[in-house]
Design a protein that fits this description.
The chain is mainly beta. Helices cover 0% and strands 80% of the residues. The chain has strands spanning 2-4, 9-21, 25-36, 39-53, 56-67, 70-83, 87-98, 101-112. Strands 1-2-3-4-5-6-7-8 form an eight-stranded antiparallel beta sheet, with no helix packed on it. A hairpin with a 4-residue loop joins strand 1 and strand 2 (9-21). It is elongated, with a radius of gyration of 18 Å. The mean pLDDT is 91.
Length: 116
C-alpha cells in the first residue's frame, strides 16, 4: 500500500511465505515495511508451529526490526492445549529487546467452543 499527498508519502508492505512440514508442522517467514513517523521500519519475522501431541500445538517465533539506527529483536512462545472437545487453554509469552532495554509479556486464556 502506497499513499502520497502534497506533504506526506507513506508505504506499507506485508509479505510472507509458509511451508507445511507433513501433518504436524509448518513454518512461516515474513518481511514488512512501514512508516514510523518520518522513518521506515523494516521487520523480518518467522515462526514455526508444530503438534507435540494430538491435543497440543506449540508455536515458536522471532522477529528483528530495523528502525533507523536502532535494532529491536523479539521472541515468542505459545502453547495450546485442548481440554476435551470444547475447551482450549492457550498460554503465550514473549520478550522484545532494543538498546539494552527489554519488555516482557505473557497471556493466558481459556476458549470455549460452540457445541456444534
Amino acid at each position: 500500500q502506497v499513499t502520497k499527498d502534497k506533504k506526506e508519502f507513506n508505504i506499507h508492505l506485508d509479505s510472507s511465505v509458509s511451508a507445511k512440514h507433513g501433518e504436524n508442522g509448518s513454518t512461516m517467514a515474513g518481511f514488512d515495511i512501514q512508516n514510523v513517523g518520518k522513518q521506515l521500519a523494516y521487520v523480518v519475522r518467522g515462526e514455526t508451529k508444530f503438534k507435540n501431541l494430538r491435543k497440543n500445538k506449540t508455536t515458536v517465533g522471532g522477529s528483528v526490526t530495523f528502525l533507523g539506527e536502532n535494532i529491536a529483536t523479539g521472541v515468542k512462545l505459545e502453547d495450546q492445549i485442548a481440554l476435551g472437545k470444547r475447551f482450549v487453554l492457550v498460554g503465550s509469552t514473549g520478550t522484545m529487546r532494543s538498546q539494552g532495554d527489554s519488555a516482557y509479556g505473557a497471556n493466558l486464556e481459556v476458549r470455549l467452543r460452540e457445541a456444534d
